[in-house]
Inverse folding.
């Protein structure tokens, strides 16, 4: 953050933008995410309208990819069955770091309506891969998916790129002082 | 042709294999038949021009406390009549002749009934699970089915 504020008045500040390299890198990273869409159920139907002109998912600067090797994040939209869970795990492991996951809909979050008698359903995709953003709903409206995308962008914006370990230690020390 | 007439004609030809006609309004009436002669009965229903059942609408499995049942819904697109057949088998030895060679649509239906109920269709060319993974244990739509604790290291219960 802060970078865009400086961009607003470039002439008053002499045409010079001051910012940390991390800010600039994160700004670029969060605004050009490529994604792997893993559509499994009715959430994927909702996601189709998300991609179409009315909601226009691509204005977030994202491009759908057909291979996990080119994807920055994976969208799990729908019911994860045990049979499919192993495939998701393989796809996740094929993605290059840094990678993120958005879990869309009740089924992917927690098993949804299959939580009790769904002998074949994985009760939440977070049992096999880490999830960064959960989008609730059954299925969620496209607006909710937009919100989830913006949450992921703000998460990437705040990420540390350099001196990660050192910073963690510093934060820990600050916390212990308090 | 009404189901009563179909029943009488089948009874003439196959005798003991045709057990009884159950009138069940407002639902469809159905004919209970023995498992042994099922293939010949179905072949007759398809190939006799008076029956002319060219369409297997549905093949489903049912789990009762002591027995398993297979239900066949047949329809004739030319004659516009339908018939329901039911075959009951014991749980110890759930074997039913396959009719996949008569109506090809029975292929996947029989695989599904095998997958979820464990009914074995003898004579099917490829009787393997259709929905669940091949290494799955048990048949989940049976009432006495217990869901597994884990599958390939993944916890199954909530």
């Amino acid at each position: 953050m802060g970078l865009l504020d400086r961009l607003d008045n470039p002439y008053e500040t002499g045409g010079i933008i001051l910012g940390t390299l991390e800010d600039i890198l994160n700004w670029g990273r969060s605004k050009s995410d490529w994604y792997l869409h893993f559509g499994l159920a009715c959430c994927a139907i909702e996601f189709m309208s998300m991609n179409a002109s009315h909601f226009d998912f691509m204005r977030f600067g994202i491009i759908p990819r057909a291979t996990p090797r080119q994807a920055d994040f994976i969208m799990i939209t729908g019911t994860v069955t045990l049979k499919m869970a192993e495939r998701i795990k393989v796809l996740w492991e094929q993605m290059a770091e840094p990678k993120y996951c958005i879990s869309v809909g009740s089924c992917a979050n927690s098993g949804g309506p299959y939580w009790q008698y769904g002998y074949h359903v994985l009760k939440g995709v977070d049992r096999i891969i880490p999830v960064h953003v959960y989008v609730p709903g059954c299925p969620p409206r496209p607006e909710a998916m937009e919100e989830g995308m913006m949450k992921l962008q703000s998460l990437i914006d705040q990420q540390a790129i350099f001196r990660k370990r050192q910073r963690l230690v510093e934060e820990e020390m600050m916390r212990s002082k308090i | 042709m009404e189901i009563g007439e179909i029943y009488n004609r089948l009874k003439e030809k196959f005798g003991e294999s045709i057990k009884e006609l159950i009138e069940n309004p407002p639902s469809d009436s159905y004919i209970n038949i023995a498992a042994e002669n099922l293939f010949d009965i179905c072949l007759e229903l398809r190939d006799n021009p008076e029956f002319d059942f060219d369409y297997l609408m549905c093949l489903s499995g049912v789990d009762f406390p002591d027995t398993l049942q297979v239900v066949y819904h047949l329809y004739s697109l030319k004659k516009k009549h339908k018939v329901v057949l039911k075959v009951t088998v014991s749980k110890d030895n759930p074997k039913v002749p396959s009719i996949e060679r008569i109506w090809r649509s029975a292929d996947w239906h029989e695989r599904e009934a095998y997958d979820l109920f464990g009914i074995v269709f003898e004579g099917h060319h490829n009787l393997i699970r259709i929905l669940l993974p091949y290494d799955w244990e048990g048949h989940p739509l049976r009432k006495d089915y217990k869901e597994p604790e884990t599958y390939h290291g993944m916890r199954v219960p909530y």
